[in-house]
Structure formats: structure tokens, C-alpha cells
Amino acid sequence: MIWHSYHIYYYDQLKQDSLILYICNQMEQAALNNTISKWFYIRYWEGGPHIRLRYLSEFEHSEIIEAINDFVQANKSGIRISKQAYYESINLNSEGDTRQLEQLPWYPEGEIVNILYKPEYERYGGNEAIGMSETLFMYSSLLAAEIISKLKSSSFIIRWLTALNFMNELLSYLDNHQYLNIPAIDFLNNCTQFWRNSSGELPDSVRKMLKLNYEKSNKDIQIRLEQVLFVECAALFQQIAAGISTLYCVINDDTAFRKIIFSHMHMFNNRLGVEPLYENELYSTLIGGV
């Protein structure tokens, strides 16, 4: 089996959820037919707003890519933005990208580009561990898609609160199993420090709004979010937890393990549509509750 990789350029980031749910449905049908072993997606910025889809299979599955293309063409956003205006809105420094505008790629909306997937071996623990992380990517993608589907008529604040609940539960799992090997609050401080250094922070007015929504989220909202995460999606959370336990057994360096966990937390938020500035606020909020 080999990894197949496609970048699906779709400019309306607010409507990417519909595309993600369509992709997930296509992938799950193929998985049920045992023609795809693993798959995952991420949202990304390089070349224009897009979804990166990767799947492990003996087959190219051109029919799936054609179906995704039909969906994109039928649901184009109509958003027009120039390459220059787009990249001016991106904090390239936080991405570690020093290229000039003319060196950066640019694809029109609706393009689906076959671009080689290069596993991040160093970031995810080397050759022995990368396959475990790729399995976690799949469960993370499935969980994010389930949450998107179940909360699709809800506001971003509800999604952010769901991410907060997930991170809190994951942190409790890591802490209870002594996988972090440092106090949870120190781990969270490391997370916030990373984003503060690379991306900065949200304006105070937005931070206060998020905190207020968190503090005032009523019992009914919390019950619904917990129902989604820990009842309706319980099996996926358990698969993620089991994957983390397996990963812990092969990563013999505590610092390296914590970095890998942070990367997985970030990629889950990415899949859910929670951008780094808002992700940073998740960790800041959790620090207040630890």
C-alpha cells in the first residue's frame, strides 16, 4: 500500500465543513469496502485555503477524487482574492516561511492537486512511531468530522467549548496515567508559551468574550456537549486514548512524547477549525481550571 495525497483548494473557509463531511463520507465508504487502510485530513493555507486529504491504499481511487471534484465544482464559494492579498493575511513568520511572494504557490479555487505526502518522521517520533501517529490522525479526523456533523447548526463558540471539553478530558487521561511526567499546569503553560511566541494572542475583547461564554455556559449546553463527546463519540475517544497509550510505550523520551502529544492536540483543533490563536485560548482557559 502507498499513501495518496491531494490538496483540494476551496476558498470559503466557513463552508469547508461541508466539504470535510463529504470527504469523510467518501473515505468511510471506501474503508468499509476494505480498499482504504487509513486516511486523514488537515486544513492548510499554503497555495490558498484548502483541505489536504491523505489515504493509504493499493488503489488510486480516481472515482473518489472525481466525486470530490464534482462536489467542489457544484459548491464553489465564488470568493475572489488575489495572491498578494491572501498572503498578506497570513503570518508567514509564525509558519517559519521566509519565501518571497513570487516564490509562494497559488492555486485557483476548485483545483485538486496531487502532491506527494511527506511523513513528518522527526516531529512524530521516527520510523517506528509514525504509523501509530497516522492511525491517530485518522481517529482524530473521524472525531472532528463527527463533532462538525452533530454541531453544524451551532455557533463557533459552541465548537470552541467542545474543543475545550475534549482537551480537558484528554489532559485528565494523560495526567491520570502519568504520561506527561510533569504537572498538567506546566504542560499547559508550555503550550501557551509556544503559541504566544509564534502567533501572539487574541485581542483582549475576544479573550474576555470567550471567557464569559465559558463561565456562563449553562448546564444544558454542557450536558449536550458531554453527550456528543463522551457518549455519541465515546468509541472514537477511546480509540484515541488507546493510540496514545501505544505511542507512549515506544517513545522513550518524556520531552519528545509531550511534543508529539502537543502536535496531535494542535492537529485535532486544526481539523475542527479552531485556529492557533483560539487554540492558545483553550490552554489559557484550562490553566485557570487546573
List keywords for this structure.
2 domains, globular, 11 helices, Alpha-Beta Plaits, 290 residues, alpha+beta, four-stranded antiparallel beta sheet
Give a description of the structure.
The chain has helices spanning 16-32, 62-74, 83-88, 127-150, 156-176, 184-198, 204-216, 219-232, 234-250, 254-272, 276-289; strands at 2-9, 38-44, 50-57, 112-114. The protein has 290 residues and is α+β, with helices and mostly antiparallel strands. The chain folds into two domains: 2-114, Alpha-Beta Plaits; 128-289, no CATH class. A four-stranded antiparallel β-sheet has the order 2-3-1-4. The relative contact order is 0.14.
Helix-residue proportion: 55-70%
Compute the CA-based radius of gyration. Answer: 19 Å
Structural category:
alpha+beta
Strand content: 5-15%
**Intertermini distance:** 44 Å
Please, how many helices?
A: 11
Low-confidence sequence ranges:
none
Shape: globular
Largest sheet properties? 4 strands, antiparallel
Q: Could you give the order of strands across the largest sheet?
A: 2-3-1-4
Structural domain count = 2
Mean pLDDT: 93
Give, in order, the helices and strands.
EHEEHHEHHHHHHHH
Number of strands: 4
Summarize the structure.
It is built from 11 helices and 4 strands, in the order βαββααβαααααααα. With 290 residues, the protein is α+β, with helices and mostly antiparallel strands.
What's the layout of helices and strands?
Blueprint: E1 2-9, H1 16-32, E2 38-44, E3 50-57, H2 62-74, H3 83-88, E4 112-114, H4 127-150, H5 156-176, H6 184-198, H7 204-216, H8 219-232, H9 234-250, H10 254-272, H11 276-289
Antiparallel strand pairs: 1-3, 1-4, 2-3
